[in-house]
User: What shape does this take?
Amino acid sequence: MASLTLDVDLSGGQEYSSDTDRMSITDDEVPPSPISSDTSFSDCDSRSMRSASPSSVVSMSSSMREAAYREEYGRHLNNYSEVYRLPADTEELERLHKQHLLFIEVMGGKYCPPMAEVMQEDYSSTRAKSVLDLGCGSGSWRAIGVDLVPMQAADAPENCRSEVDDINLGMEHYYNEFDVVHTRLVSSGVRDYKALINEISHIIIPGGLIDVTEWDFHAYDEHYQRVELDVNELGPPWWPRFLAFAEEAIRAYGGDADSATNLYDTVAGHGSFQEVTYRDFWMSSCPWTKGSEFQMKIGQGMMEDILVSTMNILPFRVI
Assistant: This one.
């Protein structure tokens, strides 16, 4: 599997490179990138996508927790968006937290390298540094965490706030507020990823940083070639076949399954960002790379994540 990470520094700072020989690919063995140049921004203006409902943004409170969920097929889903169809219950949040720890190992750290510089305290200003995490999930990445259900991190610090919101409806209330905007693997619940990036461009302040990670819902072979399968038949290889059905379900519910493929072009072509740095991370979907203890460990972790996620995707019903 390929996890696509893109970090953008608005300050015009220097580019950086990831740690050598973790799960990145050296220059002489880089596989063909799935990046596409088919990008248009004619529809990405500053007009609101938000509904007229005054309750589109709410702060977390215990009295609202029950209303945030609905039950389908024995699992609890968010009660605000029909686009994002994965559960939001304890089992799924535990999977996301383990996945977060796995990504830290693969990427060589919790944060991209410019983070420390961007978040360094400015003693000449009375304004506190701030981070916005869109689609915060389990709350492992947090400052102000925004998701379709309340964040459930029991050890959240005092300077952390959870907000329930659907980012598809626009985020004008966050404009010009944050030094860092982080989002990871949210595309299955986003109707228009280019519009999301455009919203982020208004949220981030000059000199800020955005850290965006997405996955393209495809499996790749040992030569880094995409395994292309359709949903007109059932048969092995089963993991790529499952992903083909998952991708079709995401599209059917309105998610943007192409965001990872177009990630670099979407951000670099926007015009608001400088020093755009793009990195591919390749992870085995099972522990088959016998020559590397590290990759065997990552493969084992990914296999466990896949086994849980295939069960969690059950709320995607045929429409």
Remarks:
- Helices lie at 62-65, 90-107, 115-118, 193-203, 238-252, 263-268, 293-312.
- The two ends are 27 Å apart (CA to CA).
- Confidence is low (pLDDT under 50) at residues 1-5, 11-60, 315-319.
- The longest helix spans residues 293-312.
